[in-house]
Amino acid sequence: MFRFLLFLPDRLSRVTSGGRFIGEIDGLRFLAIFPVLIQHMSERVQAYSPLDFHGVNESNMVAYTASRGFIGVYLFFMISGFVLALPFGAHYLQEAKKIPLKSYFWRRVTRLEPPYIFLMTLFFLILVLFRNVPFPELFPRYLASIFYLHNIIYRDFTPVNPVAWSLEIEVQFYILAPFLASLFFRTKNTWLRRLILTGSILILLVLQQQFIWYLLPYRLTIVGNLHLFLAGFLLADVYLTDWKKGITHSRIWDLVMLVALPLPFFVWSHDFFNWLVFPFLLVLLIIGIFRGVYFNRFFTNKWITSIGGMCYTIYLIHLPVAEFVIRITRNWTAGESFTLNLLFQLAIYLPIVFGASVVVFLLLEKPCMDKMWPQKLRGNVRKILYKLKPV
User: Fold this and answer.
1) What pTM, to 2 d.p., does this model score?
2) Alpha-carbon gap, residue 326 to 303, rounded angstroms
3) What SS3 state is found at 300?
4) Which of 46, 47, 104, 125 lies 20 to 30 A from 203 at CA?
5) Handedness of CA 322, 113, 126, 167 (dihedral sign)
6) 360 CB-near residues (< 8 Å, 6+ apart)
7) Is the confidence at residue 385, as pLDDT, over 80?
8) What angle do CA 64, 26, 372 make, to 5 degrees?
9) φ and ψ at 180, to 5 degrees?
């Protein structure tokens, strides 16, 4: 068992299609998924506990901070903008190989669809067979979710797995990313390009305020979130140009991070000034993780990056696992304090969700990280059929 745990981070290591591993990105994914897990367990403690925690978000700082866990999703959007901008930006800014659109879209399908379809189907069956949700009621919503259209059609979270709302927005961005990259990265002058990117982000923020695109149904579409993906483009620009010869680390950035890390949780609001500042605070936070000394060391630790590397699996299964766990532990209390009860439930929940994620990741997601898996599967099927062929 000890030997298994010792080599677990290596087994969980991410397989990248380009062969280029950026440890800070998986560290950022860890940072993004963790507050989401805390928020969803906090909500369930408030909903299921026999103790009365009504209104605790307004009276308890821990509960209030936990209620802001959705900021992790916004960080995911920014990371996606960064990651998808890199190969396209490298083509325009560094004369790297052009990414064919066919291979780009096919890679998104082969990488993301098998785990998504399998798990969404599993959750659909559990709801129908064990939670007695009527099949005719749930099936149309399941189909809409499978094709990433639930947000648009129903203008609400899918009951199959509510967290899929953000994945639908990600898919909308995947479709737009090559064209946005062509639009922005064709500009060769660095400062003009960044001025255009920053200006586009600010214009989107103003439009979102003016037309209230941060509310339903717009916040469930790319319209309410595109500025975060473009902020990822801005970071990719810095990475490809300013940091192309290496990243210098400074303890000054560690000091900056002491402020930048918690501040977004308290700044985020629909107030106009805070709305404008928030995405740039996330940019500052990401730069700090790249350029700090101690923060960089922590977020590139192999245990942190291995957990961050399986964030897609964790994100897909964590809410159903939270529902399962809390139904067993709902009456287990740790005094009268909400903070103690939340920590108690997290101490039970987090090892379970991480353990389940390891299994699902190794069996389902990691094999799909190999971009050649469809060809390998086809070859294996042919071999099996050949062996079964009558002589």
Assistant:
1) 0.95
2) 27
3) coil
4) 104
5) positive
6) 115, 119, 313, 316, 317
7) no
8) 135
9) -65, -40
